[in-house]
Amino acid sequence: MSFNLANVGGRAALVKGEHYYDLESWSDGVLTSDPMLALGTIEKLHEMSAALEDASPTGKLADVRLDAPVPRPPQCFGIGLNYRNHAAESNMPIPSVPLTFTKFPASISGPNDDVQMRSDFVDYEGELVVVIGKAGKDIALANALDHVAGLCVGQDFSDRAVQFASQPPQFSLGKSFETFSPIGPYVVSLDELPEDFALRLTTDVNGEARQNDSTGDLIFDIPGLVSYLSNILPLQVGDVIFTGTPGGVGVAKMKFLADGDMVTTAIEGLGTLHNRCVRASDHPNADKIPEFFKKAKDKK
Questions:
Q1: pLDDT at 299
Q2: Domains (range + CATH), the chain
Q3: I need a labelling partner for 199 at 20 to 30 A (CA). Which of 193, 212, 234, 290 fits?
């Protein structure tokens, strides 16, 4: 039986319809309240989810605020240029291997949290996120999905002023500001999804469509990413992999986010993120326009 794993006030919960079920309370202590530890009990989560028909819910989702379903990932990977149309709009060649960077775990935030922007060059990147549920090293391609707890929606907010402050550009810090990696609303188990994981992904800003693509268009697919990364370093329970963004990002048209903007990211079968942008204090490079932007504006 498929499961949707949520984080309600720091406690792991299963979701069914309009209700949630506190994992520790409902299982009489068999399962943990810690969402990170719960991710390592995939078989139990399936069993418990199958029994929800006869259970009394803890409460209604409408009455609570959801936190990040994976609040403390040991490792947080990002994959760049993993859609051909995004590589094209970035004037970059198609990678021959996954272009991998780090999104530091401190950037993780919840599905409805505000995004604290510290410059006027912050961008959106809607992404499919893979959550690891079984640790492994040198994982064979054929076994890769056995190590995945499920999938969720993610946003890879990016401060382009930091990303392009030097040449060659560096990705990790510009994509790791606090609140820059909202995920959720749940971790959805793979058996609830189509075998090819071809799901419609959309990103809207204030109701205006910016991204609309299928996650079936990934250049490097989920099994390939899991196997590739595991052949370089051990994957741990709770690791998250941001699998890349399709075309339509703001930097391609010099359309950056502003104070008060609402970014809505949805993936078919996984749910929706609602993240309001709040312009906070400046970072050290906030008033420096990278040469990259000057050249891009000159071309327009």
A1: 52
A2: 4-67 (no CATH), 76-299 (3.90.850.10)
A3: 234
